[in-house]
């Protein structure tokens, strides 16, 4: 910047004095505020994020559907072969 004044860090910029931890409006990355926010995020994902449950239910539904479809195909195949045998026995 022009003007010869000192610059102050803004937002998540590191302070000019060094240090390897980033500082933002809540303090350092290991501060209690960050830990609370992290815990709130975990609570939110456990209570309100239903994707894992829905995915599990969907997998179960598809698995059951495929099993029943295979069962119906085998029943149809047995019916056809039984009817063919009956037809051949009548000839």
Walkthrough of the structure:
This is Biogenesis of lysosome-related organelles complex 1 subunit 5. InterPro entries: Bloc1s5. Residues 1-29 are annotated as: Disordered. Belongs to the BLOC1S5 family. It holds the Pfam family Muted. With 91 residues, this protein is mainly α. It is 63% helix and 4% strand. It contains two helices and two strands; from the N terminus they run E-E-H-H. A two-stranded antiparallel sheet has the order 1-2. Strand 1 (23-24) and strand 2 form a beta hairpin. The longest helix is centred in the last third of the chain and has 40 residues, at 51-90. It is rod-shaped, with a radius of gyration of 33 Å. The termini are far apart. The model is unreliable at 7-14 (pLDDT under 50).
Keywords:
two-stranded antiparallel sheet, 4% strand, mainly alpha, 91 residues
Short description, anyone?
With 91 residues, the chain is mainly α.
């Amino acid at each position: 910047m022009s003007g010869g004044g000192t610059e102050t860090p803004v937002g998540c910029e590191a302070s000019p004095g060094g240090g390897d931890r980033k500082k933002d409006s809540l303090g350092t990355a290991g501060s209690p505020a960050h830990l609370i926010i992290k815990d709130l995020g975990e609570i939110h994902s456990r209570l309100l994020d239903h994707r894992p449950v829905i995915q599990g239910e969907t997998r179960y539904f598809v698995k059951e559907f495929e099993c029943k479809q295979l069962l119906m195909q085998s029943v149809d195949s047995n019916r056809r072969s039984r009817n063919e045998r009956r037809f051949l026995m009548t000839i």
